[in-house]
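Case study 2.
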Amino acid sequence: MAQQTNSHLRNLAFIGNYLPRLCGIATFTTDLCEAVASAYQETTCFTIAVNDTAAGYAYPPRVRFALDEKDVASYRRAAEFLNFNDVDVVCLQHEYGIFGGVAGSHILALLRELRMPVITTLHTVLREPDPNQREVVRELAELSTYLIVMSQVGTEILQEVFQVPEEKIRLIPHGIPDVSFVDPNFYKEQFGVESKHVLLTFGLLSPNKGIENVIEALPAIVDNNHDVMYIVLGATHPHVKRKHGETYRLSLERLARERGVEGNVIFHDRFVTLEELIEFIGVADIYVTPYLDPAQITSGTLAYTVGAGKAVISTPYWYAEELLDEKRGLLVPFKDPFAIAQKVIWLLEHDKERHATRKRAYMYGREMIWPQVARRYMETFEQAFEEQRQQPEHFVARTLEQRPVGFLPEICLDHLRRMTDDTGILQHAIFNVPNYTEGYTTDDNARALIVPVILEGFGEHEHGDIRLLASRYMAYLWHAFDAKTGRFHNFLTYDRRWLKDQDTEDGHARALWALGVVLARSRDEGLLNLAGQLFERALPAVLEFTSPRAWAFTLIGLQGYMKRFLGARDAHHTGEVLAERLMDLYRVCSAPDWLWFEDSLTYDNAKLPHALLMTGPWLERNDMVETGLKSLEWLISIQRAEQGYFVPIGSNGFYPRGGERARFDQQPIEAHSTISACAKAYRETGEERWVRYARWAFDWFLGYNDLGLPVGDPTTGGCRDGLHSSRINQNQGAESTLAFLLSLLELRLAEHVIDGDA
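Prediction:
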C-alpha cells in the first residue's frame, strides 16, 4: 500500500492520452495520475483525455472531459472546464503526435486560456526540430511554469536548441512499478518456457522498433544456445494498424520462417495489464530494445525493465545511453544483428557479469518507482502554485490585446458547400441562395481552392469532403486555362460557355496565387502535380500584364512555387521583374503624406505591400520588406475610424490622391487583404502589434464597423456582400464568403503558430 501524505493543493488536472487507449502516453498519464492520487488522497486528481477516434474510449471515472484531437473548439471548451472547476495546477503530457494541428499546435489554444499554472512533461525533445515544432515548444515553455524531462540529455537540448532557462526545467525520471528482484526462473513454468533462456521485447509494434534485427540475430544465437526463446509482446500500434494493418507483424513472422527460427519466436499479440506485464518482464533473462531512432529521450519499456533488474541490450538512442551508463546494460550499434547476437551470447555465457549488471540496474531504479516520482511531481506542482500565489499578475488571463488571437468563430463550410456545384463555386447569391444566372469566375474558384488546402493541414474537417472540394476547384482552373494563349479565362456562364471578352489579368494572377498555395501546402500528389504544370504554363503571360494587383497576386503565388522549386530560374527572374515594378511605382508615387504605389487607393489595396513582404526575403531585398512594412502601416493608419474600428476604403469612388475618400461601399476583400498582409508582417518581424492589427481588421466582420452590424455569418460561414451607408448588402456571394473564410483561416494560422506561407 502506498504511503499517504498531504498537500495543500485541492484539485489537480492531468492532460494526455489515458487508458484504455493503447499507447505509451496513455499508460504514463494513467500511472502518474493514479500514483499522485494514491499518495495524496486528500487531493482530487482527474484527467482531460485526448480522443483520436469519434467513438472515444470507455474511460474510468478519473477522466472527466474528453478532447477531440482534431477539433480546436474542444480544446477551448476544455480550458473553460478547467477554469470553471477551480483547478490549482494542470499537468500536461506533451507529445507532438497526440494533439491536432500542425506540430500538435491545437493544445496551445487550450493553454492560452488557463488561469492556473501549467507543468508540462515533454516526452519528445528534438535536437533538430522543424520550424513548426520549434515554435510549439517555444510557446509551450512560455505558457508553462516548469518543463519536466526524464533524461539529462533532454535538459541539455531544451537549453541549447530551444533556449529554455535552466531554472525552468525539472528532471524527474520515468516512473516504474515497484517490483521485487527475482530470479527469471520463478516465472518460466507458467509461460511454458522452463529450462529456456528468454529474450524479451515488448511495447506497441511499429516499424521503428527494429525487431527484425533481433530476428536476424537469432540464427547465430540459436546455433550457440539451442534453448533460447524470443518473446515479442505487444499489439500493433492502433495508428499503424489503421493505415497498414498487420503488415509489420506479418513481415516479422515471415522473416522468422525464412531464417529458420520460427520455433524460437513467440508473438503475444495483445496489450497486457500491468500485472501481466510484470510477469512477462519477470520471465526475461535478457531484455532487448533494438529501436532505430536515436532521437528518443525517454522509453517506458526500457525504464520498466531496468527498474525490474533485467540484463538489457539496447541500441544507443539518447535515453538508453543515459539509463544504461555505468555498466547498467550493454549497447549495440543501430541495425546490427551481428552485434546483437554477440552481446546475447556473451551475457548467456557469463552468468556472474549478467547478474552484476542486473543488480546495478535494479538499485538505480529505486529512485524511479512511482511513489518517489509522484512525490517529486507534487513538489513541482506546489512550487508552481506558490509562485502563482506570490506573483498572481503573471498568471492573469491575457486580454485580447495581449493575446496573439482571441476567441474566433468556428470554421463552418455550410455556405461554401451550398455555393459549390459539380462545376465549381458560383459567383453570386440572392441572399444566401446561389444565383445561377451569374455563373462562375476563375477569380472565385481560385480563392475557393485555397480554403480546403489550408483546412486539410489543420486536420479539423473530414478529409474526403475537403479533398473533394479542392479537386473540384482545381478542375475548374484546369478547364479555365487556354493552352494556346497561355491565359486563364475568367467568366463561365451557367450553361458552361466562356465569355472570352471578359478575361482579366487579376483573374489569371489570382489563379497563380492559389496554385502557389497548393504547391506550398498540399500533401495530395495529384493536386501538386497539376498545380505545378499549370503554374509553369501560366506564369510567362504575367510579364505582359500592366495591373499592379496582378503583379502582386503573382508574387504571392511565386512564394509557394519557389518553396517547392527553389532553383527555378525563370520563376526567380519573373519575381525580380514584378517586384521591381512595384518598387518603381512606389518610388514615383510616394511622398511623406502619401506612402503608396499609385495616385489612388482602390480595391484589394493591402495586397501590394503584402507582395513585397512575401518577395523581399527570398530575393534578399531588405528594401522591399521595409517598403512593404512602411506602406502597410500607412494604409492601416488611414483606415482607422475616430472611434478606433477598421474602415476600409469604399468602392463607391475609392480614394483619389488629394480628393474625397469614399466611406462606402465597404467590401469584405479589403478586410481580408489587410488581415493577410498583417499576418505576413508578423511572421516577418515577430512584432505582436501586427497580429493585433489583423484581429482589429477581422472584427469588422463581427460588427465593429460603421453600422455596428455583423457582416460575416459564423453559423453558416457565409458573408454579406458589403456595407452600404444605411444597410448591409444581404446577398452572400462567393467573393465575400471567401474573404471571410480566408480571413478566419489567416487568424487560425497565427493561432496555430505555424508559418502561414509554408
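The mean pLDDT is 91.
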